[in-house]
Amino acid sequence: MEEDSFTSSSALLVVENKTASERMADSQLRVLIFTAAFYIQDGVTLTIKRIISYLESQGGSAVVVTTCPEEALKDMEGYNTIVVSGTPVPFQASGFEYMLGLNLDKTTEEQIKNFNPNIAHITVPDLVGLDGIRFCQAHSIPYMATWHSNYVDYLKFYFGLHCWLGPFLTRYFLGFYSYIPVVYVPTPFIKDKCTSLGYSKVTELRIWGRGVDMDRFSPYKDRQKFRRQHQIPENVIVVLWVGRLVQEKSPNVWFECVKRLRDEGIPYFGLVVGKGSHEKLLSSLPNTVCVGWLEGEELATAYAAADIFLFPSSVETFGNVTLEALSSGLPCIVESGCSGHLVNDGVNGYTCKAGDTESFYSALRKIATDTALLLELKQNTRDSANKYERKKILQGMLENYKDIIANFDDLPKCEMKAACCSLNTLGVLGKIFLGPLNSCLNSIKICIRCCSQKIGNPKLERKVG
User: Fold this and answer.
1) pTM of the full structure
2) How large is the average pLDDT for residues 385-405?
3) Domain architecture of the chain: domains with CATH
4) What are phi and psi of 290, to 5 degrees?
């Protein structure tokens, strides 16, 4: 792929409505960002934090509108936030407390007015996002969105929800994005997928990729110190996982592949960075350590201490962790659809079909048993990551903001009218039923845990955890 494919096309074009001298300066940007769970360190939050950090370095400012339980407020320190009411997401994996925003009230609307944004950035299609669109339209604030998660795909991994809830959510998302003139998606693969689902008929899809700090994520870290700290032997291949340990990320495929290395007597060490419901499963492997969440230099050093990045998830929208691994000099074995834009098969790693454990293991075994091949793949990793150097990508988002501001009046968009908007009705129903639904689910989980303890069936508890 050409480098320009992964930066916003709008950042590369001359804006017709404004001359260069009239175009807004970076320092004039006042960005209002809507997201659901800014207190959780997932890919969405990390992307938002990188945008804010770069924006502020250029003299601009940002405020984040988000939900947050009181006990997690400390996790948002250092950022300007407006906290809105929310409710826990139903059916989520244990170990995570994601919340959905419910609405903007008069107090939060006044806080937004006091910030006086000149553009709004919507990252999650929840009920607060709906209120955000309504607020922006009422106050003539330009707005746009970025696509971060394939929510409907997640349902495939939970109780068969995809069959009956998937079509309903897809219709809701189509309605939601019909009010947004431009949605920035991370890759051509995601753009094609969204187009096939009909999103290009209701909004304009543009590409904005993700970036990596190649100075931080590099092979030139003290890998020996990290290995000694975690009692990792010197002369073994270290297979790395980074991310949430939840069902939809396919940690079971990682488990099976590493287990087969052990069964065949191939020297290895498993290094797992992250937390989630499958942490106990992965930590049960011999010669494997789960270190929890790492950030900053610790995370960068963990990458550098490894030899191969094995990541079989098929629900990624871009693959930030794959990009960080490549920048750190690691050959990557990934799912071909959502991460194929980063990995060239046989050049800097291998790509495999979603859920094909045999294919993932074959690639892992091939690299783990051939030192010359490992070194050859390593030599190509940094070059492939270079075109995603973070400053270029983040400046691209600032150009996106300025482009939307300059051309917003000319962009086609659907006005939200309270009298005829079915999404408003959905919003009201959501606010009424989501709270009781979560209370009901929590009661069921408590009953099942109690029963499983009485009958000595811990597997039953894990299924609903």
Assistant:
1) 0.67
2) 92
3) 3-211+392-450 (3.40.50.2000), 223-386 (3.40.50.2000)
4) -105, 120
